[in-house]
Structure formats: structure tokens, C-alpha cells
Amino acid sequence: MYDTRPPYLPATPVLDALPRSSGRRLVVGDVHGCLRTLSALLDRLALTRSDQVFLLGDYVNKGPHSAQVIELLEELMGDGYALFPLRGNHEQMWLQAAQAGPQACLDLAERQQAEDLLDAADSLTPRYRAFMEACPFFARLEDALLVHGGFDFSSADPFHPVAEMLTIRDYPVDEGATGGRRIYHGHQPTTLTEIQAALANGAPHVSLDNGCVYYGEREDLGRLLAYDLDSHTLIAQSFVEHLQIRPFTPAPSASSNGTPAASLILDHLVQVARLGETLEHRFELERRRADATYQDSLVNLLHYIALRRHDLRPIQDQLGALGMSRLGRCEAHVRASLGAVAGHVARLAGQTSPIPTTAPPVSISRGRTLLEDHAEALLGPAAQGRRVRIMVTLPTEAATQPALVHDLIARGADAVRINAAHDTPKHWEQMVAHVRAADQVLGKRTYICMDLAGPKLRTGPLAPGPEVLRLRRQRDAEGRTTGPYPLQLAAPHAEVAPEHGPHVPVPAAALRGFRPGDTLHFRDTRGKKRRWTITGVEPGRVLATGLKTTYLRSGTPLKHRREGSTKRTLRVGALPPKEQPLRLRPGDTLVLHRRDEPGGPAQRDDQGEVVQPAHVSCTLPAVYTDVRPGEPILFDDGRLEGTIEHTSQAELVVKITYAKGGVAPLRGHKGINLPESRLRLRGLTTADRSALAFAVQHVDVVNLSFVNDVEDVHDLYDALAALEAPASLGVILKIETRRGVQNLPTLLLAAMRRAPLGVMIARGDLAVECGWQHLAQVQEELLRVCEAAHVPIVWATQVLETAAKTGRPSRAEVTDAAMAQRAEAVMLNKGPYIGETVSMLDEILVAMRQFRQKKAPMLPALQLPAGLVD
Fold first, then answer.
1. Which residue, 258, 401, 270, 400, is CA-closest to 342?
2. How far apart are CA 187 and CA 176, in angstroms?
3. DSSP class of residue 394?
């Protein structure tokens, strides 16, 4: 099929007369084995099968995953994606080596770090050879020429497919020969600034090779680029690879003197140390860019990445058998621990350790203090008796009830959180003022954090239901009623205290003339007779109680009686409409649409057949353009699950597959998760930028929600610079998606440019995104990676949630709260018993401090029975 004589021409040397795509036309630069970076770029592009993607060659060599890059491209083409890989000079090298024989292939593989392309006979694997042979030399589009290197316009036929197309650089362009087409090529690593200038200035040929594989070696290199030929948009994906070492060869079981096993273990530890040093060199640019307080921490993180590239459990077992440290608690001081263990192993093997033990990036003693120093800079010191700080989410009532804020801080809250997704700037300002006032009275310094909502997918509003208020008595754990329910009569827009019960609006003039002991008589929406007893009269409100469940509607007449006689009649004012949730069960259909209209339940005909399925809006466009049929979708923290059956530019059709309890309600403004979809959601929303402008003036820490890749971090930092945010303003990255978990090391490398810095484990969304069965594992890895970076962790979502809502925790919640000892802060959400819950958490954390320091168990004296050891 192919001509095997030099220059090994494909059956079709030029890709020509290609039909114009109905989607985007994208051109991608040199990949060079950077599989993870290519995958990250494809995630951001969110390809559809109507897109055309032209790759400019050099898929192999230099980077860590040459073979897997080819396999990924083949897989995508096999799935129906329109990918057109052109040939690069590095593919040509391999074809020439394959023609020369196994020794040439072996030599090339060793020079280019591409041993994964070889087969068992040290030849180019036939699968990869077929891929390379099929790659044409260039593509001719109606408005562009695409090639790896370029064209020799001094030749009589510059488009003759010769090898010079793969290697030529810095050539003049004959625009008559190109027909006015611009040439896009790779092969020549070019800074991003130069590439952007060439695109903007109409240069006749533009390099799209930003030297992805050279990340950290030169300023302004290290990205994989994609260029949209139609929208003229340049997409830059930062390098996200990590260098590899070969998997460790398991050592035999330790012998009686341990010498054979010790020699092999020492060799493995040396490999790890050398990989750490290589990563230090590769990421030297990032280290220099990091804030001074995090430069050594960044290096320690790189050594931890080196340590965890492969499964260490076989070596840990052998270290344990030799009575040595298993490196299981070395996160905060990796290089120092590695050197210490290697020294002991070397002595056992009768050798000298090649890993120096002097001057590691972070010593063991300093590793223990760096994290606490960073935590104190971010959220202040913890209260006396515990090392973990308590953060509390402020409810709306905190804006109007300074006593509530004072109580939370007095009970032990070290930090408070304002959620910018709720309330208004006026509310936020009042909350801040109440925190500062409480601090002044209590002599404390409470840190204020503000959540930026981020591009959270949520359901839109639902059609309003009837204006009905239900009032009923509470029941205890055994189902017995606990006494009359409270309520308060007040003017329609009066500020009321929630502790006095629901607000029943009445005209302000109607509040006069009440006395304790008076009664109000009426019939509720069901026609049942009801009576309320007045218990108190205060400025602006009248307090009352009732005994029987009541459904109250707007306009209900209330007869005011005293000593059996009716004194007057007043009417209930306008009640807020009661939201009617969609009630969905497995098998139901739900339509998610972008129309600006309230959602509603399914409509049925006289026979009960559905004529219009339930529907609700979601206004983020990425939902409609990026998801695919067959992908899962979850609502309201996983209470409802479904599968996407059909997609269009206007709506998604979802088949419900799971509903908690068999039938689950779906309300407006509830979260939507698409864990397997490649959504193009990134950066700060308009609402985020508005909240950020408030935050830089009033709070201590900004929490960035739904962080997925380093571009999200860069967007935040650029916005902070534009707002001239104070250097002391802390940043917390909220990790709540699969991509956020996968990209955590690179997120930290980018985020360390500012300090103070923290990470929040948002366990609610993580459980939905990753699956509840994986949450414990994900949580464990996040804790370890952040400890290696000396970045403080906030342990969040559903901590003592039942206690905050009911006043009594579950047994599992107490254990969970005790595990928060592994973090630097733990966050409580709001609830009617939040004050008591703060006290409860404080007590748990103080008690647990003697048993655990981070993940290291501590051993206080065991309380033995009297006389056992005396």
C-alpha cells in the first residue's frame, strides 16, 4: 500500500479537497509524547464529531508517552472524530530507522526517550509504523496550508512532497504560489508572545509550536496550542506532564541479615531521589515564580510526586520487615526522609548511600512547622487546646442579628464563611461589620472568607405554587408532639427573628390592641377551625402559639377575640408562593432547556398518559453543546440520577434512572453534575467578578469554587492583580470535580505564586463527581498531596450536619468530625443549632489532639485498670 522508498510517501501525500466542516476547524501544534497535556487540551476543546482537527506532526519522542499519544489519536478517529494527523520530522526519523533495522530503532529510542514505541524485537511496533506511514505531508484547505515545517518556495514545485517540508525553517513565502493562503506549521518552538503577534499582524506563516515538551527550560515556552481557523481563537494548554521512572522491580523477601533486599531497596530509593532532582530542574521556572514562602514547599511537592509515581507498597513491606521507617508519614519532608532511610538501608547493605543527608530542601523538623506556619498565615492561629481551626458558614440572619455572630465567635469559631451565591452586598457588609464588632468585644481576630460561586450548573426556577404557609408542632425522637408551635404577626416587610417562629404578615395598623391571652379564630385552607393564643406583645410584632396543624393562605380573615367576644377582624397579608418541586421517579423523562421560563411538572391527558414531560431550565450554554447521549447526569447532590438520551442546541432529554426513596423532589436552583462530560466551563463569571471586587475590600480570604485547571487559577490571579488586591489576601482552591482532583499537583504549582494559600475538600460535590465509593480514597490523596506542598486543608461539607439541624449528632458524624484532626480547618454549615454545634466540635477537636497529629497516631498513656501494672 505504501511506497517504502525514501522519503516513505503515504498513499496520499497531500490532504486536499476536504469538505468544509460544519463545526470548528482546529489546528494543533507539536505534541511530542505529552499525553496528559494533549488530553487536557482535548478536554478544554470539548470536541464534537462535526469538528475537524488537524495535527501538525511530531507526536513522538522527547516526552514520556509517545505510544499512548498515537493510541489516543487512533481511538478518537475510531470513535468517529474527524482527526487529520500530518507527518512530522520525528515520525520520519522513525520510518527511516525502521527501514534501517532494529539497532537503528534501539539507538533512536534511547536518544529520544521513546522506548515505548519498540516491539519485543527492538523494532518499531507495526501498529505505530502504520500510523506514521499513513500521515500525509501537508494539507491544503480553501484558506490555509498546514504543514509540519514549511515549503521551499525557491523550488520549481514547492509542494512536491519531499522531506524538506518536515525540516525547513525561516523561509520566505511566495503568496502567488500559496494563492493567498496563510501557512500554519510546527517544528519551530516559538514563544507565545511571538505567536500571538504573528497571528495579529497577518504574518504569511505562523508557528503553532510553543515547545510543550520544553516546559520550564525557557521563559514563555511549555504549552500545547490549538488554533481555531474560523473564530481566530488561540487556545493554550499548559504543560501537565510529570517525568516517569520505570516501575520498581520487587525485591525478594528480606533474608536473615537483610543484605540482598537492602541493596535492591537502596537502588529503588536512589531512582526516586534522582527523579525528584530531575523534576526540580524541570520545574525550576515555577519555583522561581512561586512566593518566597512556598519555594521550598514546591520543591518538596515535586519530590513527593517522584515518590508516588509507582506503587511503593512492596518496598514498604520490606522496609517494615527490616524494622525501618516505611516512608508512610514523610509527606512534609520527603527528601529528608528519603535520605535518612537510604542511609540506614545502605549501612545494612554494607554500602555508602549516594543520597546526601545534608541540606535537603525541607528538613524533618522544618517540614513539621511549615504547614502550621502557612495555616496561621491563611486563617490565623487555632484556639488554645487544639490545632484545627473551626470555620462556620454564616446564614442570612447573620446580617441582621449581631448576637448570633457574637455567639458563634464566642463559642470557638476561628473563621467565618460568606457564600456569595446567596444574599446581597448589603447583607455581606452587615455580616462583616458584625464579625468585626464581635472581635472587638471578645478580643479575637476572626478571619472572614468569601466563596465565589463559580460556573456552577444549577436548575432554574420553578413555576410558583399557591401562597400557602404550613404551621405545625414539632415531634421528638419517639414521634410525640413537643408542645404548641410559635408564630409571630408582623408587618409584611418587617425584619423578624426566626426564633419566634414563622412570620404571618398583617397590616402594621392591625398590630395594635392585642393583649396576652387574646385569641385569633379562623378556618384554614381545608375549612378546619383553628385558634391561636397571643403570648406576647413587642414593638413591631405580636407573638402567638397554636396547637393544631394549619394551612394558611393569603387573605384569610382572623377574628380577634377577648374574653369570648369578637373585637375586630383582620386579614392575613400576601404570603410568599410555595415552590412546587418536580417529583420524579425512575423511568420518568425530564427536559433540561435553555428557555427563560419557569420549570413545571409533566402534563398528562385524561387517560393519565404524559403529553409533555417535566421540564426545568439551565442557562449555562456549555450544557447543550458539550454533553453527549449516554453520559450520566445527577441532580441535587445525587438525589436524582439520569442518563442523557438526546441533545440539541436548545435542550437535553434525560431519562431518570434513580430517585432517592423511589420518588424524589427536584427544586429550583439545585446543583447539576455531569461527571463524565467534557464541559468548557472555566474562569470567573460576571457574578464572581462583582463579588471579588467586594471581597478585596472587606474579607481576608477568597474561596475559588470549581477549580478545574491552571487557567482557572490564572484567571483569578489576573483579576486580583487588576483590582490591586492586598498581598495579604488569602486564596483557597475548592476541589469539587474529577478534573480538579486529577490536576491538583499542577493547580498547586500554579497557585503557589501567591500566599497565603489553602485547599478546601468540598466533599459533597466530590462524592457526586467521583462516586461515593471513591470519596474516602480521593479525600486521602488530597490530604497527602496538600501536606507535601505544605498547603493547609479545609475539611468541608456535612460535618456534624445532623447536629446543626437537630441539636444531636449521629454516631458516624462524631467519628467523621474526629477525623477532621487531619486537616488544618473544618467547616460547619448553617443550621438552627449551629452555636451548640460549634461548641461540640471544639470539644471533639480538643479531645482528639492527644491521639492524632495530622495522620500520625499519637500514644498518650493508656488508662489501665487499677492494679494491672502497679
1. 270
2. 24
3. P
Number of helices and strands in the chain (H, E): 26, 39
| Category of 867 on φ-ψ map: left (φ > 0), alpha (ψ -120 to 50) or beta | left
Q: Which residues have CB under 8 Å from 242's CB, separation 6+?
A: 36, 64, 279, 305, 309, 745
Give me the pLDDT at residue 63, please: 87
pTM (predicted TM-score): 0.67
Q: What is the predicted pLDDT for the residue at 865?
A: 54
Integer Cα distance of 229 and 718 in angstroms: 27
Locate 227 and state its grid cell: 488554533
Q: How, if at all, do strands 138-140 and 485-490 pair?
A: unpaired
Closest CA to 334 of 309, 354, 313, 305: 305
pLDDT > 90 fraction of the chain, expressed in percent and rounded: 53
The single-letter code of the amino acid at 159 is: F
State the burial class of residue 773 (Cβ atoms within 10 Å of its Cβ: 0-12, 13-18, 19+).
Answer: exposed
Model confidence over 834-869: pLDDT tens digits? Answer: 999 899 888 888 887 766 666 555 555 555 555 544
CA distances for 81 relative to 21, 53, 74, 75, 624, angstroms: 12, 8, 10, 9, 19
Give the integer Cα–Cα distance in Å for 519 and 530: 10
* pLDDT at residue 249 greater than cutoff 50: no
Residue 551 confidence (pLDDT): 95
Residue showing cell 426566626: 498
Edge-first strand listing for the sheet containing 672-673: 614-617, 589-593, 651-659, 640-647, 632-635, 672-673
How far apart CA 526 and CA 40 sit, in angstroms, is: 59
In this predicted structure, the answer to whether residue 258 has a pLDDT above a threshold of 60 is: no
Q: Determine what percent of the chain falls in helix, strand and coil, rounding each to the nearest 5.
A: 35, 20, 45
Q: How far apart are CA 472 and CA 476, in angstroms?
A: 13
pLDDT score recorded for residue 225:
96
Closest by Cα among 341, 380, 388 to 364: 341
Torsion of CA 482, 485, 486, 490, to 10 degrees: 170
Q: pLDDT tens, 648-702?
A: 989 999 999 999 999 999 999 898 988 888 777 777 888 999 999 999 999 999 9
Residues of the chain above pLDDT 70, percent: 93
How far the first Cα of the chain sits from its last, in Å, is 90
Q: Count other C-beta atoms under 10 Å from residue 176's C-beta.
A: 8
Coil, strand or helix at 402: helix
Which grid coordinates belong to 541?
A: 410584632
* Residue type at 513 in one-letter notation: G
Residue predicted with more confidence, 323 or 853: 323
Radius of gyration of the chain (CA): 33
Q: How confident is the model at residue 46 (pLDDT cuts 50, 70, 90)?
A: confident
Q: Is the Cα torsion angle 173, 177, 181, 183 positive or negative in sign?
A: negative
Beta strands in 315-419 (DSSP E): 389-393, 415-419
pLDDT tier, 444 (very low <50, low <70, confident <90, very high otherwise): very high
Residue type, 21: S
Give 845-866 as a DSSP string: HHHHTTTEETTEE--PPP-PPT
Return d(Cα 743, Cα 37) in angstroms, integer.
11
SS3 per residue for 45-107: HCCCCCCEEEECCCCCCCCCCHHHHHHHHHHHHHCCCEEEECCCHHHHHHHHHHHHCHHHHHH
The Cα 548–Cα 522 span in angstroms is 12
Label each residue of 519-585 as H, E or C. EEEEECCCCCEEEEEEEEEECCEEEEEECCCEEEECCCEEEEEECCEEEEEEECCCCCCCECCEEEC
For residue 810, what is its C-alpha cell? 449521629
Rounded Cα gap, residues 519 and 563, in angstroms: 9
47 vs 30, 607, 712, CA distance in Å?
Answer: 19, 44, 20
